[in-house]
Amino acid sequence: MRDNVLLTAAAGLLSLSLAACQMGASSGAAGGAVAGAVVGGPVGAVVGGVTGAALGAALSPEETTRVQQYVVTQRAPSVRLREEVSVGDRLPQRVTVRPLPRVLGVSRPYGYTVINNRPVLVEPSTREIVYIYE
Question: Residue 18 and residue 75: Cα distance in Å, rounded?
């Protein structure tokens, strides 16, 4: 029974976090915090808020598709890192972050690179990964 409740709560958290992609960072943070609190109490609220904000700050679905198509056609060399990367990680200085051209029409000035053969979207000013393309 407890496992079913946790599974249902986790699914709800994922749904809210995904919805945050289309709402923006502030709405994403609020939704993620509420969902996190349901699943994990105060600590879950903090984690959910951060996750919701990060997802809400990313690109729209249309922009994501355009960027992915562009990145794949550029064939940028992959940088090999020992550890797996995830959203929120900061890239080492040795990793080159390439700017996205304005012609893509993205709403934010993200950059991209390829890490361990996976294209990633990067916030250039902080070098933080905001999206990982699968």
Answer: 28
87-107: pLDDT as tens digits: 999 999 999 999 999 999 998
The terminus-to-terminus CA distance of the chain in angstroms comes to 34
The first and second tokens of residue 3, run together, are 């496992």
User: For the chain, what are the domain ranges?
Assistant: 2-57, 61-132
Q: Give the pLDDT confidence of 63-77 residue by residue, as tens digits.
A: 989 999 999 999 999
Size (the chain), residues: 134
Rounding to the nearest 10 degrees, give the CA dihedral for residues 117, 32, 19, 109. Answer: -50
Asked if 116 and 95 touch (Cβ cutoff 8 Å), the reply is no
Q: What is the pTM of this model?
A: 0.59
Helices and strands in the chain: count of H runs, count of E runs: 3, 5
Question: How do beta strands 111-115 and 78-79 pair?
Answer: parallel
